[in-house]
Amino acid sequence: MVEPGDIAVVHYVGRFASGAESGEVFDTSDVDVALSEGVYQGHRDYRPLSFEVGADEIIPGIDAAVRTMDVGDERTVTVDPDEAYGDRSADSVVEVPRGELETRSGRDARPGRPVQSANGEIGWIIDVTEETVTVDFNHELAGERLEFELRLLEVREPAEDQQSTAT
């Protein structure tokens, strides 16, 4: 079993678990899956995900599932929003003066464009009027019930991981 502090190396496929997009792949670490599912992005480096178990480096639902696995295990887990990217929050959708945003960013405000808040949060413009811009700072998967196919490839102790990256 995987212990907190271990470095877990997994391949994953993330799918929507419910709603109109149910079964649709939104992310994967496997290039073959990305190509076959039509979600391949050329700028991305597809490779297994490595993370320290118990260190809040990955969503809680995946962290918890990996703790119950052995190397070579494959498992599909369904993760509710509270164990993934949280619920959508109306407080995370803000309206800002258009002129202020365009001056600060140096770009025209257009729906779909990313913006960064003063404290570093990334949001997406969802609406633009003559006077205001509405920005959604919720994670794009907030409120979604998700399904992950996980394959545990390797488990290393943290000291092993540091040695392998030092060489």
UniProtKB/TrEMBL annotation:
BP-aspect Gene Ontology terms: protein refolding
Domain PPIase FKBP-type: 5-97
Gene3D superfamilies from the UniProt entry: 3.10.50.40
Keywords: Chaperone, Cytoplasm, Isomerase, Rotamase
Molecular function via GO: peptidyl-prolyl cis-trans isomerase activity
Source domain of life: Archaea
Stored PROSITE patterns: FKBP_PPIASE
Pfam families, per the entry: FKBP_C (PF00254)
Presence of keyword Cytoplasm: yes
GO cellular component term, pick one: cytoplasm
Family recorded in the similarity comment: Belongs to the FKBP-type PPIase family.
Protein name, per record: Peptidyl-prolyl cis-trans isomerase
